[in-house]
Design goal:
Blueprint: E1 6-12, E2 22-28, E3 32-37, E4 46-56, E5 59-70, E6 76-77, H1 80-84, E7 92-95, E8 101-107, E9 121-123, E10 126-127, E11 135-139, E12 146-151, E13 163-168, E14 173-177, E15 182-188, E16 193-198, E17 207-209, E18 222-230, E19 264-271, E20 276-282, E21 296-304, E22 322-324, E23 331-334, E24 339-345, E25 361-362, E26 366-367, E27 375-378, E28 384-388, E29 403-410, E30 413-414, E31 419-420, E32 423-427, E33 437-446, E34 459-465, E35 472-473, E36 479-480, E37 499-505, E38 515-521, E39 525-526, E40 537-538, E41 546-558
Parallel strand pairs: 6-8, 12-15, 17-18, 20-22
Antiparallel strand pairs: 1-4, 2-3, 4-5, 7-14, 8-11, 8-13, 9-10, 11-12, 13-16, 14-15, 18-19, 18-21, 19-20, 21-22, 21-23, 24-41, 25-26, 27-32, 28-29, 29-41, 30-31, 32-38, 33-37, 33-41, 34-35, 34-36, 34-38, 39-40
């Protein structure tokens, strides 16, 4: 029993503000520490340490320090974990009942920032551009836990990046979502912001991880992804047909301030370990039309889970985790490239993206790459043609972009055989047997922007072989293809550009004389001509051939 020991309690005050407001410290029932404090009328936050020591015959058995923080308004703090624990189930939504309780953390979003969240479509050609401006993020000082903050109005979102904020949570709404687990606090007003103070860079932690190390607890926190590069490093952060985006200072001839088909654009990035993730940039950003950086480095941002129906299958799944840079400076890539290019097919000039392309090869003997050795063949032997490749825009108002992507017009799902057709890639890896890993990078779109060419299969995967006969599915190679949009067509699911992917290839394919890859559909599910008909049909024998378009197909490896 504690009564058997000599107990020595004392208060330690780190500064002059500590004295005079902690009036009493008691230990009751041998276990309950009671600290009595005066009401705070100082107008300032104040901090003190209460030191508890348990000493018996000169031996110290307990020596702990309890930090007491009293805000100017005399609120109590609730930690992030306690707030999240209010919803014990996998999902839920509650009204927070926590009188005079505030959470305190580091703001990692930013007020007035156009890349905070998905700006949702209100119609196929209309978007609510205020959603991002009403969104912010706050995390613990060690960066291990975070919340998305939803303000009722964009004017109420006054929290600046890398400040320490105290937010009263009583009466607000807490939402918990699953797959991945993530938390949002909704209904904030400026009145919920109790205090905001500047904080030195040493006052908080920015964590670094590889993509494959991400877990659900990272969602809605800011961190750096290590040793990353952009899969298709050509064009801009938003490689879409700008005629479908709203008018802005960088898009002066766009479709119009209230006419826009989409905002958020996913760009594939991958790291030294071969894992990949989508970086999301909204077209509303002033830097969204800036040139994509090349090289390898840290790519920082807020980890999110966004569904983008024009670029993802199902409800718009583009991956369990994505990353949203807060500004362009978050993308710190340099020219110390350790990601080597084995072979790359592209039919545009990287130094003159405005020019049309020139094909090199044919459907019988195969199409030759711009870099390295290999061939690309359609499984039906049809010849390729050139299609729109939105890397450059001479006139966004007319939706005109250069024809420098290559496309094959064939039945990608043969309804008479109930089997897929494919694009087949052949190359050699005999000179890179010692590579750490190998990555397939490509960007893809389907159809020709008309209601008659919506029957592009949605669900695809990649197969591999070393003899061109016996194929196996590349693990984790599933991806989706949305048909390309047409002007004025009431479709909420059609894409405005080519969707980029990075797929890690098996190491067993290293050191091989020949490697064959089949990019092919895995089912006959396709779209139909209705606003939400992205997966409403199936490819049948009566369907004709349809284009599938590639801007770049590349095999990279990491030494």
């Amino acid at each position: 029993m504690l009564a058997h020991y000599s107990l020595n309690l004392k208060k330690l005050f780190p500064n002059e503000n500590g004295s005079g407001w902690i009036e009493n410290v008691e230990l009751t029932n041998d276990s309950l520490l009671i600290i009595a404090v005066r009401a705070n009328e100082s107008g300032q936050q104040r901090v003190a340490n209460v030191n508890l020591k348990l000493v018996n015959k000169g031996v110290t058995y307990v020596d702990l320090t309890h930090k007491v923080i009293q805000t100017a308004q005399d609120y109590d703090f609730i930690d992030f974990d306690a707030l999240k624990a209010m919803i014990p189930g996998p999902t839920g939504e509650i009204r927070i009942s926590a009188p005079l309780k505030v959470i305190q953390g580091i703001v990692v979003g930013d007020a007035g920032n156009n890349n905070m969240d998905l700006n949702p479509n209100t119609a196929f050609n209309a978007i609510d551009f205020t959603e991002s401006l009403k969104t912010n993020y706050i995390q613990t000082e060690d960066g291990t836990s975070g919340f998305r903050l939803k303000f009722g109005t964009q004017a109420a979102n006054i929290l600046s990046r890398f400040t320490r904020a105290s937010i009263m949570v009583d009466g607000l709404t807490l939402v918990k979502e699953a797959n991945p687990t993530r938390y949002t606090i909704k209904g904030l007003t400026s009145g919920n912001i109790v205090q905001v103070e500047n904080v030195a860079p040493t006052g908080y932690t920015i964590r670094s991880k590889y993509i494959g190390e991400l877990v659900d607890e990272d969602v809605h926190t800011y961190l750096k992804l290590k040793e990353t590069t952009i899969a298709i490093p050509y064009g801009a952060f938003t490689n879409i047909n700008m005629g479908y985006a709203r008018t802005t200072s960088w898009n002066t001839q766009g479709a119009g301030a209230n006419v826009a088909y989409l905002d958020a654009i996913p760009t594939s990035i991958y790291d030294q370990q071969g894992s990949s993730i989508k970086m999301i940039v909204n077209t509303a950003n002033s830097w969204s039309r800036d040139q994509l950086p090349k090289g390898v480095g840290d790519l920082a941002g807020i980890i999110v889970h966004n569904k983008i129906i024009r670029y993802g299958a199902g409800a718009g799944e583009i991956g369990r985790y994505s990353i949203r840079p807060v500004n362009k400076a978050d993308v710190q890539l340099y020219n110390n490239n350790t990601f080597e290019k084995l072979v790359e097919w592209r039919y545009f000039n990287p130094d003159n993206l405005s020019a049309g392309g020139t094909l090199n090869g044919n459907g019988t003997s195969g199409y030759l790459p711009a870099v390295g050795q290999g061939t690309i063949l359609p499984s039906t032997g049809v010849n390729a043609s050139l299609g729109a490749n939105p890397l450059y825009h001479s006139d966004p108002n007319s939706k005109a972009v250069p024809s420098s992507a290559f496309q094959f017009n064939q039945k990608w799902w043969d309804g008479s055989k109930n089997a897929p057709e494919a694009m087949i890639i052949k190359f050699s890896t005999k000179n890179i047997a010692s590579a750490k890993t190998m990555i397939l990078n490509f960007n893809i779109g389907g159809g020709s922007g008309t209601a008659a060419t919506l029957h592009v299969p949605v669900y695809w995967h990649v197969k591999y072989s070393t003899d061109g006969v016996n194929y196996a599915v590349v693990p984790n190679s599933d991806f989706s293809v949305r048909p390309l949009a047409g002007w004025g067509l009431n479709h909420n699911f059609t894409a405005l550009g080519l969707n980029p992917y990075s797929i890690k290839l098996p190491n067993s394919l290293l050191g091989q004389d020949n490697v064959y890859l089949r990019i092919e559909p895995k089912s006959n599910i396709c779209a139909v001509d209705s606003p939400n008909g992205g997966e409403g049909g199936t490819v049948s024998a009566s369907h004709g051939a349809v284009n599938v378009r590639f801007g770049v197909v590349a095999i990279n490896y990491i030494q």
